[in-house]
């Protein structure tokens, strides 16, 4: 499309994979927002937002039609400095009530949720039914003694009850801690202990690859190590299929029985009074893993994470009423709480899925897209790499005509999976909105959008309203060179510190440069203004004085036709200081051999230069990852070197480490 066709919104990019049409520009929420501000283009909007965040967030809240109980009298208070910014002074806002009541009043019979179990079971709730269920659950929690400020762990897969519990606790001004459903007891217990949770919500079990995950046993073992927990509420997901459930009388309660006690069957659901909540009231403590020490409990508030997530979904992904969001995630990954609060606040329908993406067959996700008429689909590069190994036929066997936007987050892309997602899943017509940020900032720092041409694997720029930059070691802006990703102005979604550990919060994000958030990612801005995330800055490789991001090495390796995905780490070297070890997963049908490993190393050297040729190339069956798909490079490195890996509670596949240890024990990986 010639640039003159869309002068208000951006730039022409000859190698763009997708360009907004005039129709896209006309209906885009972001386009309408830019026009409403009276500014000439998105760049001008971003510049003003960076200079005056209070102006931007006031305008964004109005654009989102935030249903304030009481409007703010001022927007941003920096009296304690940017690290402790406070937002929406004088306002009253309870995010859970805002996610429930306007839509139930406006369209009571409209669809709010659709859930699908791995066994094919389906449940749906209308807007009115969701509000009624949340009120019943709030009454049940209240009867169990849960009140404002109390902490409640939620250790569930993505069920209808998961959403109901999250919102009910918000109505009560309690604080929930989302816990990944695949964690072992020790990881669950450490989170419950740290936030001193008094109640845990779990399930009798759930399905994974056709088998039963006995969640209650794990919950019991965790509670035994978390003395603050006095009640355990159990969802009957499997019922008779599960068999006998271990039970502690006086402590444990069935979810359905607690709900029925609050509102007997056939009786009207109780209406729980909506509190006039200060937007700075905490509602969630979500834990993230660090390279050392215990997990960090990021504190999020009613006027923070939910509004930042909704704004990202509206302005980056163009989500709104009439749309259906399906983001393949777990509650324990920030994308779970993000999807719940963001979709419901925006009036969209949310699809939840309990199981794995390829069970009982490799077309499972595409069947969900077709069956629930999904408009917005979010998948990680890891999921795409796994599903593309099955070929295109499972995708093409299902109708994808409802899809409008594809989302991705979790890790950097390499070319082949990105193009497969764009061409096969999105049929070459749906933009792939790349999105990267973090749990501690409630979502995106950089992203694509629907008014800027999309270049493969890139980000169109900072998230709308985010004063992001890339800087050198002295904090000076960088262009065309890899540097540290930073944020120069506070955001409503930034964590209000770590639970009971304010010093660690300051040290983690605010200690490098004065009043600047340093996120811990390497990033690059190219000559055309497109952004690229190059991996975690603490994963950076420095070989013979040359610094390189691990994703650069991994993308170079993935050019070899036998490599499906790879992880690059640095290992000590007597001469170079550090050399590269590369762990590769091969495409189905490719066979490991010394010649293949040498060819992979040569491909990296061809692209990046001989000094960056890996010393070790090891073929493994799987890379160590979190369930959200992030490769845990530090854990791979620790396994190879035989050192303490630090916190590994987020690791989804611990057996993946054995092949890495085997490579260290022998010489078969050396090339």
What would you say about this model in short?
The chain is α/β, with parallel strands linked by helices and 671 residues long.
Number of distinct beta strands: 29
Give the strand order, joined by hyphens, for the main sheet: 4-3-15-14-16-17-18-19-20
Return the average pLDDT rounded to an integer: 92
Main sheet, how many strands, which sense, barrel? 9 strands, mixed
- Count of helices? 21
Structural class: alpha/beta
Helix content range of the residues, please? 25-40%
Indicate the proportion of strand residues: 15-25%
Tell me the span between the first and last alpha carbons.
47 Å
Low-confidence stretches: 1-10
User: How does the overall form come out from the CA principal axes?
Assistant: globular
Please, could you describe this protein's structure?
This protein is an alpha/beta fold. It has 21 helices and 29 strands. The strands form 8 sheets. A 9-stranded mixed β-sheet has the order 4-3-15-14-16-17-18-19-20, with helices on both faces. A 5-stranded parallel β-sheet has the order 6-5-7-10-11, with helices on both faces. A 4-stranded antiparallel β-sheet has the order 21-22-23-24. Strand 14, helix 12 and strand 15 form a beta-alpha-beta unit. Helix 5 packs antiparallel against helix 6, helix 6 packs across helix 10 and helix 8 packs across helix 9. The chain is globular. 57% of the residues are buried. The N terminus is likely disordered.
């Amino acid at each position: 499309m010639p640039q003159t066709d869309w002068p208000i919104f951006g730039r022409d990019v000859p190698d763009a994979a997708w360009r907004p049409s005039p129709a896209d520009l006309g209906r885009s929420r972001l386009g309408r927002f830019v026009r409403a501000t009276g500014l000439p283009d998105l760049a001008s909007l971003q510049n003003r937002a960076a200079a005056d965040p209070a102006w931007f967030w006031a305008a964004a809240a109005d654009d989102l039609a935030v249903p304030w109980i009481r409007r703010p009298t001022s927007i941003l208070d920096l009296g304690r400095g940017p690290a402790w910014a406070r937002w929406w002074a004088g306002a009253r806002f309870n995010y859970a009530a805002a996610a429930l009541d306007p839509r139930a009043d406006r369209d009571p019979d409209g669809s709010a949720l659709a859930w699908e179990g791995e066994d094919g079971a389906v449940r749906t709730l209308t807007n009115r039914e969701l509000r009624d269920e949340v009120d019943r659950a709030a009454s049940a929690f209240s009867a169990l003694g849960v009140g404002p400020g109390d902490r409640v762990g939620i250790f569930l897969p993505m069920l209808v009850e998961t959403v109901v519990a999250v919102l009910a606790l918000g109505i009560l001004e309690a604080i929930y801690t989302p816990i990944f459903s695949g964690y072992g007891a020790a990881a669950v217990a450490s989170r419950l202990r740290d936030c001193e949770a008094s109640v845990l919500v779990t399930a009798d079990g759930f399905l994974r690859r056709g088998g039963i995950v006995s969640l209650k046993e794990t919950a019991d073992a965790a509670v035994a190590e978390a003395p603050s927990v006095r009640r355990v509420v159990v969802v009957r997901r499997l019922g008779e299929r599960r068999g006998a459930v271990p039970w502690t009388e006086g402590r444990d309660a069935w979810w359905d029985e607690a709900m029925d006690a609050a509102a007997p069957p056939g009786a009207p659901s109780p209406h729980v009074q909506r509190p006039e909540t200060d937007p700075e009231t905490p509602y969630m403590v979500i834990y993230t893993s660090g390279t050392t020490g215990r997990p960090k409990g990021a504190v999020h508030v009613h006027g923070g994470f939910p509004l930042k997530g909704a704004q990202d979904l509206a302005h980056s992904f163009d989500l709104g009423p009439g749309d259906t969001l399906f983001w393949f995630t777990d509650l324990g990954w920030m994308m779970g709480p993000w999807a719940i609060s963001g979709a419901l606040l925006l009036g969209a329908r949310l699809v939840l899925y309990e199981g794995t993406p390829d069970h009982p067959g490799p077309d499972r996700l595409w069947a969900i897209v077709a069956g629930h008429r999904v408009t917005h689909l979010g998948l990680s590069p890891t999921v795409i790499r796994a599903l593309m190994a099955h070929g295109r036929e499972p995708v093409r066997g299902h109708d994808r005509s409802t899809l409008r936007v594809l989302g991705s987050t979790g890790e950097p892309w390499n070319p082949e999976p990105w193009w497969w997602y764009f061409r096969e899943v999105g049929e070459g017509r749906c933009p792939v909105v790349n999105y990267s940020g973090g749990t501690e900032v409630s979502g995106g720092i950089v992203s694509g959008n629907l008014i800027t041409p999309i270049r493969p694997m890139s980000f169109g720029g900072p998230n709308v309203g985010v004063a992001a930059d890339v800087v050198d070691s002295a904090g000076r802006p960088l262009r065309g060179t890899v540097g540290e990703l930073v944020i120069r102005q506070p955001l409503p979604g930034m964590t209000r510190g770590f639970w009971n550990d304010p010093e660690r919060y300051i040290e983690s994000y605010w200690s490098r440069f004065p009043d600047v958030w340093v996120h811990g990612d390497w990033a690059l801005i190219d000559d055309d203004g497109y952004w690229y995330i190059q991996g975690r800055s603490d994963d950076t490789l420095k070989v013979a004085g040359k610094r390189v991001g691990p994703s650069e090495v991994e993308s170079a390796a993935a050019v070899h036709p036998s490599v499906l995905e790879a992880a690059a780490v640095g290992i000590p070297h007597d001469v170079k200081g550090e050399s590269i070890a590369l762990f590769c997963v091969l495409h189905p049908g490719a066979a490991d051999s010394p010649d293949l490993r040498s060819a992979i190393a040569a491909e990296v050297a061809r692209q990046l230069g001989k000094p960056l040729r890996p010393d070790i190339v090891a073929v493994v069956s799987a890379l160590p990852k979190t369930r959200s798909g992030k490769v845990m490079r530090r854990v791979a490195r620790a396994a190879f070197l035989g050192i303490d890996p630090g916190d590994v509670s987020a690791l989804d596949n611990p057996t993946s480490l054995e092949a890495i240890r085997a490579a260290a024990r022998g010489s078969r990986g050396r090339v």
